[in-house]
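Hi Q.,

Before the meeting this afternoon, I wanted you to have the magnesium ion prediction in hand. No need to reply - just skim if you have a minute. The sequence and ligand are here:
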Amino acid sequence: MSLIVQKFGGTSVGDIGRIELVAKKVAACRAEGDDVVVVVSAMSGETNRLMALAHEIQERPLPRELDVLLSTGEQVTTALLSMALNQQGVKAKSYTGSQVRILTDNAHTKARIREIDSDRLIEDLKEGYVIVVAGFQGVDGNGNITTLGRGGSDTTAVALAAALKADECQIYTDVDGVYTTDPRVVDGARRLSKITFEEMLEMASMGSKVLQIRAVEFAGKYNVPLRVLHSFKDGPGTLISMEDNSAMETPTIAGIAFNRDEAKLTIEGAPDVPGVAYQILGPIGEANIEVDVIVQNISHENTVDFTFTVGRGDLARAEEVLNQIANEINAGKVTSDSKIAKVSVVGVGMRSHAGVASQMFAALGEVGINILMITTSEIKISVIVEEKFLELAVRALHSSFGLEKEPKDENVREEE
Ligand code: ADP
Ligand code: ASP
Ligand code: MG
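Predicted structure with the ligand bound:
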């Protein structure tokens, strides 16, 4: 007998018919004798709907109030799924995050889980209940409802799996696994049967929102075997786990991620003196704006141009801060561009293969795409390009790295 945590995303619980199908799936797992803890998201579109209601009243509602509102979406689906299970003759109980006591910090709308009190759940499991827990929410030390950031139900599921030492955490969604790139963008995208935590973390961080970044971090940290599967189609899905050293050869590139949510800012003619990077980026950090890619041009006439990217939502604020800095340090003009995108190739195989960067640049050059900025890490190369070239760039790279094709060695990433 195993303990399985199953998470169902928004589209999988999008209406009553689907909730009944999910109940059937959970019941089948239970019938095989496994203990099951289910985590559900809000019905698809519900979190956006709630957010829009809040914004009808206030441009910037207090995050504490937003959390009280947004957490209701998941409470609805837990109750409905429990009812559907009971209706199918399966004993089930629903819980909100605070009832379980998923304790988080107090960073409303982006809280981090600190601790999960699993005693009550263990008692219920012993009594034969299926437990249905609301994803995306917790409670802080003072009893305030918190939420874990968009897509946070994935993190609830992984954290519960870690706390309960589950045998597997299954993330059921509207695709049948993790693909070489978003299958909505590239027709030839291929399902991976395996990917390492490290690669998945880079993919998620670089924009593949199939899993929330924190969920992958958590799964890696606590070594929770994680599998992404289709809610309503049978199949092996994608297993995300530690690096498999038994594979004879790992493909160089696992996948391609992309992100439209970036904007770039340039400050021209900043004095080329020690400490100038800090003078520019210090106040940006103090304004709580995260900086991603940074480029400093070679000095000419004792000045430098300094370019960096931020999330699009932070652009207006960053521009304000940067104009102020430009004044203070006697720099030239500040310009910005929000029509950019980041494309990244990711793979642990990069560690042992040279030439990935040149292949990437060649593939983009061949289709006439100009690279605006470049940044690398050990297992990732990212480029910033004009947004209008995003899809062309992803397709060109997908094809150049041969990702549509099955790997030569069947043991590598294909069928386990
Ligand atoms: P859920 O509501 O179930 O949490 P999400 O919308 O958060 O589902 O995640 C599933 C979506 O992630 C897919 O529909 C797909 O378009 C997108 N996606 C982006 N990158 C990838 C990828 N590399 N592999 C699979 N899906 C991806
Ligand atoms: N309902 C939340 C969202 O839409 C959390 C989730 O679905 O994981 O972001
Ligand atoms: Mg999701």
